[in-house]
Design a protein that fits this description.
This protein is mainly alpha-helical. The protein has a single domain, classed as N-(1-d-carboxylethyl)-l-norvaline Dehydrogenase, domain 2, CATH 1.10.1040. Helix content is 51%, strand content 0%. It has four helices and no strands. α2 crosses α3. The chain is elongated and about 45 Å long. The two termini are 17 Å apart.
């Protein structure tokens, strides 16, 4: 069952996506080698943007990252899971 099926409005999910540092590492290595990585760079910037507001789209991204990648989700109460 997907997250929106459980809670259509994702009321308990904070639209926050943490970064582990792997994207930063990949981007630094790509810059050193003059290799473009637009998708990874955009994904890293989206994680940074998620720290600014609690948009519905970032709630969905956070919930999907949890379900498909096992990434922790921060609830609106501040706890992670």
């Amino acid at each position: 069952m997907l997250a929106p099926d459980k809670d259509e409005h994702l009321r308990d999910v904070r639209g926050y996506a943490a970064d582990s540092g792997e994207g930063r590492w990949a981007i630094r290595a790509a810059v050193d080698q003059a290799v473009p990585l637009p998708a990874i760079t955009a994904a890293l910037y989206a994680r940074f943007a998620s720290r600014r507001d609690d948009s519905p789209s970032m709630k969905m991204i956070a919930a999907l990252r949890n379900q498909f990648g096992g990434h922790a989700v921060t609830s609106t109460s501040g706890s992670t899971g």
